Amino acid sequence: MDSSADWTAYALFSPSKARAQQAQAKDWAFVDAWLAKKYDKRIPVFERSEETLQALLSLATLNEAADEQRGAVERVEKLAMQAHSRRGQESNDAFQSIIASLTNSGLESLQALSDVAITLETADHRRMAMRLATITTDCFDLAEQLRSSREQQHVLQQEDTRLKGILHALHDDSLKAPSSLSEQTVELGRNSKQMRAKLNEYDERLRTLGTDSSISPSMDNILEQLSLLKAERERMHVLKTELDVFEGLPSDPKAARSKLESARRELETITSRRDTLFERLLDTK
């Protein structure tokens, strides 16, 4: 029995297997058609297997899908190019119409605007405005820095001139050291040695006087003498106050006593008059 007869018999015996065989035959027909279209070749009989069929079927399906996508993209690009060509022609006509309607000043303004757009690398008016504002701010900052630098340069030049004047004055002959400077230095050194020797001598004398306790009084004695002197001064002040009361009296004791009695009687008279006036004042009230 040949293979077709066996397949027919097997298919009649198993309908599900027959459907699977038919589907596989259709898949192989699709793969063979795709290979013939792409490479003009067919799969050898000994290479036909289930794994090869699945691999080639997936590859053919993906290739067909990619071809369809590529074709769709090409159609869209073609339509876009046609639309762009139409819009470009329309834009060119509108541009030429605008150019023709502009005056000379308008053309100059348009040229300036285009130059600014090229320089700033943008055609968006908002970005152009922002960048122009930024450039203006930067220019102002740079101008301020330049002005400050020039002022500093001017100050430095003035200071340089002043220092050069001082340096020139320092090289003047009047500021040179006198010829007798070495002799004066030697003389000052000699005097310094003599003064140092005298100073050591005086220090030695002071140390000698400091160790002799019989000559210099102690601090306690000095404080005690000062306290006694202060007490005597206070006593003398009290006595002087008491003696001031008797100032104006005669030196003769009898005459002094008589004057004192007269003053006492005068005091009593004044006291009596005071009392009388006080009593009258009370009676009047």
Overview of the molecule:
- The protein has 285 residues and is an all-alpha fold.
- Helix content is 84%, strand content 0%.
- It folds into three domains: 3-101; 121-167; 223-285, no CATH class.
- The protein contains eight helices and no strands.
Kindly state the number of beta strands.
Answer: 0
Category by helix and strand content: mainly alpha
SSE pattern: HHHHHHHH
Return residue spans where pLDDT drops below 50 for at least 5 consecutive residues.
Answer: 1-12
What's the rounded overall pLDDT mean?
A: 75
Tally of individual domains: 3
Please, how many helices?
8
Task: Annotate the secondary structure layout.
Layout: H1 3-13, H2 15-38, H3 50-101, H4 104-120, H5 125-170, H6 181-211, H7 219-245, H8 253-284
Helix pairs in contact: 1-2, 2-3
Give a concise summary:
By secondary structure, this protein is mainly α.
Keywords:
285 residues; mainly alpha; 3 domains; elongated; disordered N terminus
